[in-house]
Design brief:
With 230 residues, the chain is α/β, with parallel strands linked by helices. Helices cover 52% and strands 8% of the residues.
């Protein structure tokens, strides 16, 4: 084969290879783009020991109708929570919990929601449902962000304050959080609380008045700081 013809073929092969790389590049970039925020949350596959002790019959639920909605709300809160870059939070749904709403385990950055609680929310308007989910999840995020290894009155109030701040930053109105506490009956039956259970004894000394005053103070501070949490 003449040398000139050989050089032309080598050049054409090189150009063809370059064209293939250029065409493939957008596809590769697209494949690396992250999915929706809720899809980047970890899906928890174990029931926490605390829940297992109180609810021996507790089982994971993988197909609850509100699973996606709960993950969307949690992702919305987590984006503005101020957690360090790369830190992920996990979410799981548990059935067989007799009134339990949610529990968090800071050691694994995990939150478990009650399937029964989610089912009670299903008939509510979507906007109300989102606020209620955000309140419960915001409180549990408060425990995660503060690194609480045990539950006591001080920690519960701190988790509420952090939750209120995150709730407001996420675009919800923390005044609604404060107003919602007026529905609590004595003794304190607040988000995350299951009356009569051992792990919930931290709430026993918290009255409605204390919870409302705590949330009001946190809400005032959150609104003063603004959406970006100046």
């Amino acid at each position: 084969m003449p040398e000139a013809q050989l050089r032309r073929r080598v050049l054409m092969a090189g150009l063809l290879g370059l064209a293939c790389l250029l065409l493939a590049a957008p596809l590769a970039v697209g494949a690396e783009r992250p999915g929706r925020p809720e899809e980047r949350l970890r899906r928890l596959v174990l029931v926490p020991a605390e829940t297992r002790r109180e609810f021996p019959e507790a089982t994971l639920v993988r197909d609850h109708p509100l699973d996606g909605e709960a993950r969307t709300v949690l992702a919305r809160l987590w984006r503005v929570a101020g957690a360090r870059a790369g830190r992920l939070v996990g979410l799981g749904i548990v059935a067989g919990t007799r009134g339990f709403q949610a529990i968090s385990v800071p050691a694994v950055d995990g939150i478990w929601l009650s399937a029964e609680y989610l089912t009670r929310l299903q008939d509510l308007p979507a906007e109300v449902r989102a606020r209620k989910l955000a309140r419960v999840l915001g409180h549990e995020l408060g425990h995660l962000l503060a690194g609480h290894e045990r539950h006591n009155e001080t920690n519960e109030l701190e988790a509420e304050r952090i939750g209120v701040r995150v709730f407001e930053r996420a675009g919800f109105d923390c005044a609604w959080w404060v107003a919602s506490l007026d529905e609590i009956v004595e003794p304190a039956e607040a988000p995350g609380h299951a009356p009569g259970l051992g792990w919930a004894e931290a709430w026993a000394g918290l009255t409605k008045a204390v919870l409302i005053a705590n949330a009001e103070e946190a809400c005032r501070a959150a609104k003063a700081a603004g959406p970006a949490g100046r």
